[in-house]
Amino acid sequence: MDCDIELEIDTGSARGEYTVHVVRAPAGGHASGMFTLDVDGILDRLPQLEATVLASAVAARRTMPVAEMAVREVGQELFQALFTREVYGTYRASLGAAQHAGQQLRVVLRLAAPELATMPWETLFDPETETYLCQTEPLLRHVPAPDYHQNPLDVAPPLRILGIVASPRDLPTLDVAAEKEHLGRALAGPVAEGRVELVWAKSGTWDDVQSMLLAGPWHVVHFVGHGDYDSRTDEGRIALVGSDGRASMVRAVRLMALLSVAAPRPRLVVLNSCSSGEMGPSDLFSGTASSLVRSGIGAVAAMQFAISDYAAIAFAHGFYAAIANGRTVDEAARVGRISVMASPDGTLEWVTPALYVRGGSTQLFTLKGTPRAPAFVEGTTAAAFQGGPAPVPAATGQAAPTQATQAQANADQAMKRAQLRALYVQASAELRARRFEQAVELFDDLLTLEPDYRDAPALRDTARRRLDMARAYREALEAEEAGDWLAAADGFAVVQDDPEFPEAAARKQDCERRQRISDLQGELRYHSSLGSWEAVLDVSAELESVDAAAADPDGLATVARVEIEKAKPKEPPKPEAPEVDAEAHGSYTAVSPPPTPPTPPRKPPESAAAAASARQTAKPATTPPRAAPLAGVPASDAGVSASRLDSAPRPGPAPRPGPAPHDEPVPMPLAWVPLAWGGAALALAGGLGACFAIYFLWFDDNYWYESGGDGSLRVVYGLVAPFGYLLLAVAGLPDRTMLGRLVMAGVVVSMAVFGLSGLNYTVELTAVVASFVHAGFGLWAGILAIRARKSQPLGWLLLWPTVTIPFVWIEDKGVFLESWYRTHAYFVLIQLLVVCAAGIGLLVAARRLRPRSAERTGT
């Protein structure tokens, strides 16, 4: 086929490793790859997958995406493993080529590894297109065998089908009549048209089957019964009926020998899993199918899971109708799957059929001639050809219809039990896997069909409770992430006693603490807006007991301390008391001025009164009165002390009271957070720009413009650096005056204009002018910051990266503003390193400001 993409899958060097190789594809090429696949894990999930597929046939199913999740997960795992990057590219290209040619792309899987035969490849799900491959494209499994191409068998209608039902008594009992009726209803149309003839073997024993095969010709063998897989021999088996009525397990090689007695050998075998009431072990017909194809059968359609009556009838109807109309067997399998998808809505049982082929051709039959009317065959009736029960003698009266009705009722009841058990298994599995929403929905479906099924009501209540707890915990986590601490704490309180959520109690306490911090900070801001500075400090002290780092939000506690200090009255300075000479007066000391040279001796007055009068006339009127004798000084020494005080220099006049302290402007401290971010932005701009310049100077072989160097520096100079200067202005540099803010605005705008103008192949006038304007504003801002005491070091860090901007126009040979190439970017590199160093310095300065702020707040 021209539109085949054949993928050969073989084992790799280790367990679980496989290789995939594109043998041929419409898009050409031979892509290959290696992948790992957890085969054992998928095999362990097959019972759950089977329960999911079978449960999807229940009419009460409401939410198919829930039931489909298990199938989709397995299908996506297989798809992503098989279609590696190169193989997937070939697949998508081949799909486009097939659509362009107006054909369908057929996917052929050559399974060289035996364990891959049991994988549910029919679930392959493409996550990009969100489609299953076998729903849109024919999918078949090619079994490695001696390469030969059988010519299509010429068949004159009708196409003869031999039906076999084997129901051993030691295996789950099959309703033989119901199984025959199901296939008969599926083929009623083609049988009536004479295109298909269906004949049933009398029993499922070896002798009866062999007798019917000898009475051929038979084109198709349709087997209904039990099967399994023998891991010791790596071979599938089917169960025929032994002479004692018990199961006689027939390996695929023996079954092939039995089928070989027919002449010609049947080209197609259909293995249909049973629809018994109780689901036993998985019907691994996959091993039998691959063995039959390897032994010489042209194609085998096998059911890899138990299948409901409806799905079995629908698949057989579409499959055999397509065969009878001359379609290829792979196309017939796709038509059969589409028939299964018809109803009920959302059923997944189209996954169950799997097709195995041998050789390169899928055209098994060539129908020649016109269909003929159904004829009688010895030992059968027309009703038998149509699959219905044979008429019974009239003497039985109404017994036959009554038995048939009872048999159908028993079959329906058995199928219901199987579906209920499948729903129960799937719901329990979802509950164990903690997918509580899916478990609740599945238990609801189960209890809709059977309200008191086993312990399903209690399990549903458990699933609902777990779902509510999981939902509350998830909502609490979302509230915590959104900063809604109160809602998060309430949510964690709901689940804190549940052992499934061990961290809920700690999260609740943390959210309550954060909520308390948020409330206190809101109260602090409220008091600050009213100017209640004492209340601000009280709230800040309470905040510190909860979280020291949150005690000074936005520096409001610091502002409160400054305002309180400003409001305190200033006491006038007290004059210093003189010191009494310790040598002359023993241990009696006082504060004394520094020693003065001795005064010349004065003529002693004639009397004390005269001396006093002379002193009064000699001193100016403004001389303050003599100090009283010092306390504790003997009276005999009082005169000496007084004379020493007289000879000491007098203090000058008391200073005039200046303006009150609260009239002086108090400079606001720099905000360290925006200062740190501004430094980080400048460090980032300088560092990135330096890396770009180094690359363009020494590692780039192309010209500057062709390498996109102008674009990279536009980002550095036009966006990142101006953002850093803007953050420095927010932090309070160069000062918080209106002039300082205007100067920083000029720095930011001129830098952005310079950067966005770009360093192009030729010098742009706008960029040149903006660079000098930026240098001027930067010089102005640096001087303003240097003049301020507290930001003097930061002024130098602000000045250097701004005033050096015009250096970028200097070429390596000293030429200025002539042209600009990448080879002349040395001065750009130097300027960018200056910017980076200044940013790092600002970061260090901001880090040093932080503990000072904490010390001022008392933290």
Oligomer: single chain
**Could you estimate the helical fraction of the residues in percent?**
40-55%
Number of strands: 18
CATH architecture of the largest domain: 3-Layer(aba) Sandwich
Instruction: Give the biggest beta sheet.
Output: 11 strands, mixed
Radius of gyration: 49 Å
CATH fourth-tier homologous superfamily of the largest domain: Response regulator
TPR repeats: 420-453
Biased composition (Basic and acidic residues): 564-577
Domain CHAT: 73-344
Biased composition (Low complexity): 606-621
What does this structure look like?
The chain has 859 residues and is α/β, with parallel strands linked by helices. It has five domains: 4-142, no CATH class; 153-370 and 379-385, Response regulator (Rossmann fold); 409-482; 504-567; 672-857, no CATH class. 51% of the residues lie in helices and 11% in strands. It is built from 28 helices and 18 strands. The strands form four sheets. The protein has an eleven-stranded mixed beta sheet, sandwiched between helices. Mean pLDDT is 76; it is low at 59-64, 275-284, 375-400, 580-593, 601-666 and 852-859. Keywords: Membrane, TPR repeat, Transmembrane, Transmembrane helix. InterPro entries: CHAT_dom, TPR-like_helical_dom_sf, TPR_rpt. Residues 564-665 are annotated as: Disordered.
